[in-house]
Design a protein that fits this description.
With 148 residues, the protein is an alpha+beta fold. Helix content is 25%, strand content 45%. The protein contains four helices and eight strands; from the N terminus they run βααββββββααβ. The mean pLDDT is 89.
Length: 148
Amino acid sequence: MITIKITGHSNKIDLETAWNKIIDIEKYPQRVKYVKKVKVHNTGLGSKWDDITTILWIPIKMRHTVNYLQKNKEYGFKVYMYFGGCMEQKYTLSQKDKKLIIHALITFDLGNKLLNASLGFVLKKRLRNMLISNFKKNGAEIYPDNRI
């Protein structure tokens, strides 16, 4: 199992605005690095949506199932990987005084040790890069213990 944790904070964006950006999946191609196209099938807990994302410059269709949904608090989904294994992403939001805090957690297992050691290493760097890019694009700073 490979784990990526990033925590960001911002005084520039409030909790409700951040929440609305996270759940507006149809705008992911404009907001989320590597996502090229999205199709939402339905909304709510258990809903499904697909995206076309590039992995090693190859466009791949990924089916997502929403498995965490608590308004203004947490959003997450599970993805069964095209080449085997499973990934989960979970975003937890909170606000202390006027500071927004976002915890991002991504875990994945590609199904065998060889893939985790090779492709897993590349995916981990790519997913970290995606998270940091998205946080910064939306005005959030990364806490120092999350530097690459």
